[in-house]
Prior knowledge:
There is one protein chain. By secondary structure, this protein is an alpha/beta fold. It has helices at 19-31, 68-72, 90-96, 100-104, 126-139, 153-156, 180-208, and strands spanning 8-13, 38-43, 76-82, 112-119, 143-144, 167-169. α1 crosses α7. The longest helix is centred in the C-terminal third of the chain and has 29 residues, at 180-208. The mean pLDDT is 93.
Amino acid sequence: MSSDATPYVLILYYSRSGATAEMARQLAAGVESVAGIEARLRTVPPVSTTCEAVDPEIPEEGAVYATLDDVRHCSALALGSPTRFGNMAAPLKYFLDSTSNLWMNGALIDKPACAFTSTSSLHGGQESTLLSMLVPLLHHGMVYAGVPYSETELLSTQTGGTPYGASHVAGARSDRPVDADERALCQAQGKRIARLALALEAMRRKEAS
């Protein structure tokens, strides 16, 4: 990122039924409540067992697909995924597996990161899914930021919300909207990662000068 470019938090997610995408938008609102930084929403394409690519290069709706440069130049990274048997979804894992060059060059070292997820049921693997997204972030040398208990919705929520990252319970039909507590925690997580991004960006620039 050039010295005069506005820093941004890359909110990178995969969403099948729309819940994770809505959470991403709520995180973006939290990020952009902080002056001096922007949110950049990006998604990843689905993966298939077929060898021929059948999806368009640009999605018909929603966020565009992420590039490695989106990741390389971000000041912070927020990963979002629905759960797949307590793990992140394959499309997001497939994209992360393509970031080896960024790892070899230390592009993400000392940048803050966080994760968020959506599940159909309350005990559908929210914490383990968030932890599965944490692992590659640690390998990249990133600084992980969860949701602190100073966010009182963690104590009042009857649905989603964990100290590991924002979460949502979408229901058996994946049609339950993000409720007020879940929305507040998403926005709080976005705000926190934005503030950390600015602080660590300033530290890196000072060390480089």
